[in-house]
Structure formats: C-alpha cells, structure tokens
Amino acid sequence: MLPTMQPVPLAAVPKGTVLRIVGAAGAGFPSPAQDWEDDAISLIELLRLDRAASFVFRISGSSMIDAGINDNDVVVVDRDTRPVEGHIVIAIVDGGFVCRQLTSRRGTMLLEARNSLQCYEPTPADGVEIWGVVRTGVRDYRR
C-alpha cells in the first residue's frame, strides 16, 4: 500500500534555469593551476532532474546522518535504478516512506538506519517495497 502522499515525477520541471559560476572555491589548498572551464550550469542537467523516473523527497528525521543525509535535506530518487547492497533507498515500511541503506547480513537483505547515536531496528527487506534509489542530495547549509 502506498502512503497517502504520492511523489510527483520531475519530468515537468521547466528547463532553462541556468546559474552563472562565479569561480572555483577551494576546499583544500588552493592550486595556482586551478582553472574553471564552465561559466554557467543548469541545475536541471547537473542533478538530472528532467528524467521521468526521478522524484524528490525531503528527509524528515535523523536516522541517516551517518550516511550524510540530515533532517530537511532534499534527495533525488530514481525509480529506474535496480537497488543493490549498499544503496541508500526509499522504501515503503508500515505504510510510510522511509530512507534506509540496503544491507546484507548472513544472506538476509535488510534496511538499516545510519545513526550511531540512536538505536533503530533493521527492517528485513523481504516483502518491503523498495520504492527507489537515492541518487543525490541537496542541503541548505543555513539551517
């Protein structure tokens, strides 16, 4: 059974929004050889949001912080990617969408949270609908 809120495909997102790149911002030691070839990027192309099988979810909660996914992050989910062990996925558990990592323990596939500060019981993946695979995320760093 699908949750009451239904995801909407991103294929209808208007194209043409282009952002100018101001320059490269070093996150390590600056390199004098650093050169930037692009002067503009399209977020639609960069995040590949124009695919019919791509959807966006806002993450609620802190169960995936050790995987780098925080509360209120936005993740792009592909429905046409076959989930394999290690993928971060969106699954339907107890009638709601959850974000978990697909793992294998002793031959059993599990959905596991990634938060070492809290205890979450793994959910056996058998019989659970893996709705899609998380491909990328976006975070507002002002929060």
Describe this protein's structure:
- The protein has one helix at 43-46; strands spanning 18-20, 40-42, 54-58, 74-78, 88-93, 96-105, 108-112, 123-124, 129-138.
- The protein has a seven-stranded antiparallel sheet with strand order 3-4-9-5-6-7-8, with no helix packed on it. A two-stranded antiparallel ribbon has the order 1-2.
- The longest helix is centred in the first third of the chain and has 4 residues, at 43-46.
- The model has no long low-confidence stretch (mean pLDDT 85).
- The protein is mainly β and 143 residues long.
Please identify the structural class as seen in this structure. mainly beta
Subunit arrangement of the protein: single chain
Total beta strand runs: 9
Mean pLDDT: 85
Largest sheet: 7 strands, antiparallel
What pattern of helices and strands is seen along the backbone? EEHEEEEEEE
**SS summary, helix count:** 1
What is the alpha-carbon Rg in Å? 18 Å
Instruction: Please bin the fraction of helical residues.
Output: under 10%
N/C terminus separation: 34 Å
**Shape from CA axes?**
globular
